[in-house]
């Protein structure tokens, strides 16, 4: 119930105004977001890399409705990738891209605009010597995002994508994307979806995640296991053993600010551990999804409101 309310508020302009104008919000947001600027992002990336972690950077923004904003987002990614190169961070850090931020919703031409814009980001990533992973948004965008992925991979086979275990279709998508060179980030899924397309209970989603993980870990691609769930982390280690996977043939991923001590523990054991690091001033939608995932975060937010 609370999850549905928070996810609905994440799409409401009125709720956005209220949350953004609350002075204590910034304090809570900083737990999950590196900061507003490129310099903030580079500072946080450097600190994570110094701790032996890998990073995937997200320039915050989604659901763009005008062309100029989509182009500005692409420019921000190009600047980011250039800074990663000049700061010698391209080995440790890649980028994550939401197609809705680069034009996917711009009318009937949206998919083509998003593809052209994603190409510019991939060119900049190739020049920097790093990779791009396409985030996955609500289920109405899945086909379009996977189509863009297919197009991009003909030029840049290292482009990866997120699959969401809560969608009923995802086990089949995992099979399609378990081939050599394929990079798939498997997560549970963060949007409010109808039962016609998505499993609803935690238990069903967790079981679907294990089925998808099994497909990816026994396949020939590079699974990126994006979860904070201790049970799924343990199952990943078991599946790696069962499938004789070397430690460099898959990786763990978690969000910035969530279970940081576990991130360091996994990296300290010799695993590749990548932290999803968002930055920029368009943090509202991202922040509301993090609140929705865990009721305790709402308590943290309310306590900050009371004390700041
Ligand atoms: P859960 O069962 O939700 O959580 C397990 C445990 O992790 C909890 O008990 C708690 O201890 C901790 N935890 C989880 N979430 C939080 C939180 N917000 N605050 C504090 N503690 C928490 N979703 C998409 O739909 N599309 C994407 O493209 C996408 N990309 C992602 C990329 C990465 C690298 C990661 C890690 C997640 C991504 N997600 C994405 C979000 C994902 O779908 C889940 O909503 C999120 O990861 C929570 O699920 P969980 O697997 O951690 O399991």
What does this protein structure show overall?
- The chain is of the alpha/beta class and about 300 residues long.
- It has a single domain, classed as TIM Barrel (Alpha-Beta Barrel).
- The chain is about 50% helix and about 15% strand.
- It is built from 13 helices and 8 strands.
- The chain has an 8-stranded parallel barrel, surrounded by 7 helices.
- The chain is globular and about 50 Å long.
- The chain starts with a helix and ends with a helix.
- The model has no long low-confidence stretch (mean pLDDT about 95).
- Flavin-adenine dinucleotide binds next to strand 4, strand 5, strand 7 and helix 12.
Keywords:
TIM Barrel; 8 strands; binds flavin-adenine dinucleotide; 308 residues; 13 helices; FAD; alpha/beta; eight-stranded parallel beta barrel; 52% helix; nucleotide-binding
């Amino acid at each position: 119930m609370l999850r549905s309310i928070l996810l609905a508020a994440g799409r409401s302009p009125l709720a956005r105004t209220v949350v953004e104008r609350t002075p204590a919000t910034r304090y809570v947001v900083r737990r999950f977001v590196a900061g507003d600027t490129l310099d903030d992002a580079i500072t946080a990336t450097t600190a994570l890399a110094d701790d032996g972690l890998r990073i995937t950077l997200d320039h915050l923004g989604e659901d763009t409705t005008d062309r100029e904003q989509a182009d500005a987002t692409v420019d921000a990614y190009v600047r980011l990738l250039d800074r990663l190169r000049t700061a010698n961070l391209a080995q440790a850090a890649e980028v994550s891209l939401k197609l809705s931020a680069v034009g996917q919703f711009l009318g009937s031409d949206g998919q083509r605009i998003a593809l052209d814009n994603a190409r510019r980001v991939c060119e900049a990533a190739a020049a920097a010597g790093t990779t791009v992973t396409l985030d996955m948004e609500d289920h109405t965008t899945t086909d379009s995002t996977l189509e863009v992925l297919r197009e991009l991979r003909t030029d840049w086979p290292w482009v990866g994508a997120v699959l969401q275990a809560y969608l009923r279709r995802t086990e089949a998508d995992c099979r399609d994307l378990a081939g050599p060179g394929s990079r798939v980030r498997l997560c549970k899924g963060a949007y409010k979806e109808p039962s016609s397309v998505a499993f609803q209970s935690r238990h069903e989603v967790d079981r679907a995640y294990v089925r998808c993980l099994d497909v990816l870990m026994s396949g020939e691609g590079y699974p990126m296991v994006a979860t904070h769930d201790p049970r799924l982390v343990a199952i990943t280690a078991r599946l790696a053993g069962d499938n004789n996977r070397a430690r460099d043939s898959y990786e763990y991923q978690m969000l910035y600010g969530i279970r940081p001590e576990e991130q360091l523990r996994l990296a300290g054991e010799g695993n590749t551990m990548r932290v999803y690091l968002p930055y920029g001033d368009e943090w509202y939608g991202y922040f509301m999804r993090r609140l929705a995932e865990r009721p305790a975060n709402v308590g943290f937010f309310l306590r900050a409101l009371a004390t700041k």
